[in-house]
Amino acid sequence: MEFGKVAVLMGGKSGEREISLISGKAVLEALRSRGVDAHAFDPAARPVWDLAKEGFSRAFLILHGRFGEDGTIQGALETMGIPYTGSGVMASAIAMDKWRTKLVWQAAGVPTPRFRLLNADTDFAQVVAELGLPLFVKPAREGSSIGVTKVESIEDLAAAFKLAHELDPLVIVEEFVAGQELTAAVLGDTPLPLVRIEAPEGKYDYQNKYFTDVVHYHCPSGIPTDREEAIRAAALTAFQVLGCRGWARADVILRADGSFSFLEMNTAPGMTSHSLVPMAARVAGTAFEDLCVEILKGARLG
User: Fold this and answer.
1) Phi and psi at residue 46, in whole multiples of 5°?
2) What is the dihedral sign for C-alpha 279, 281, 282, 283?
3) What domain range includes position 151?
4) So which residues are the catalytic ones?
5) What would the DSSP string read from start to end of 232-281?
6) Smallest Cα–Cα separation from 60: which of 246, 279, 250, 286?
7) pLDDT tens for residues 49-78?
8) Position 32 in a domain
9) pLDDT at 151
10) 167 and 235 fall within a common domain
């Protein structure tokens, strides 16, 4: 009971609401199993200011996407003086924005695929000449692969841009990087074991991430030890230069030549049965329930 009354913030109003509710339920049950006075709280269903009125002393944030991972709920909690898990306002806002994340990483020497912004006036032929094909078109501030299109030909760029732009006015296009898909989690100041992802035909999309069992996960990753150590060290740097704290998870591609690129940073990763941070923590010797308690211990303001 050292944590007092704890709100598990789940649901919300982003495109990832469904996954957040699943994650939140798992976290809620885990905390309660460890004797924590934890309660579900959905900010899409009630005013967030009720947290202060009802005497909550800490918040476990498991809201995914906008209004949960982008600094907005963090700012509200700061105003109410309620310590919360994960990154603060600035780091949450930057990490939610794939474009600005990449600008910070470029400045800090963290490897990331080449990219540029897209808008309605963009010369798509010039984009293809610069970045090659295939390409990935993404809404800059969505998660869980929502609105992402792999573009194989220049004729498909306009439709991919339209889809992404409907979700976010800020759209990026990124060069395709061939290689093994990995995820690198950080807990506190410790990078966890890497998870290697094998998806059918490389389709690690929203459906396959959460609602099928066709994706294979490998932890330990099975990649060469020197590459694992290098990526884990780089993941900690990628985490720190964004100002992240508490916990987060980066997506990485390892090329055949041993080089690697970081795609994005998730500051409130999933905690479902298919999620990767619990998998990495388990291999490191931390059970799911203890992982949730450890994240809660890191709740803070500022």
Assistant:
1) -155, 160
2) positive
3) 115-175
4) 16, 144, 210, 249, 251, 264, 266, 270
5) HHHHHHHHHHTT--SEEEEEEEE-TTS-EEEEEEESS---STT-HHHHHH
6) 246
7) 999 999 999 999 999 988 899 999 999 999
8) yes
9) 96
10) no
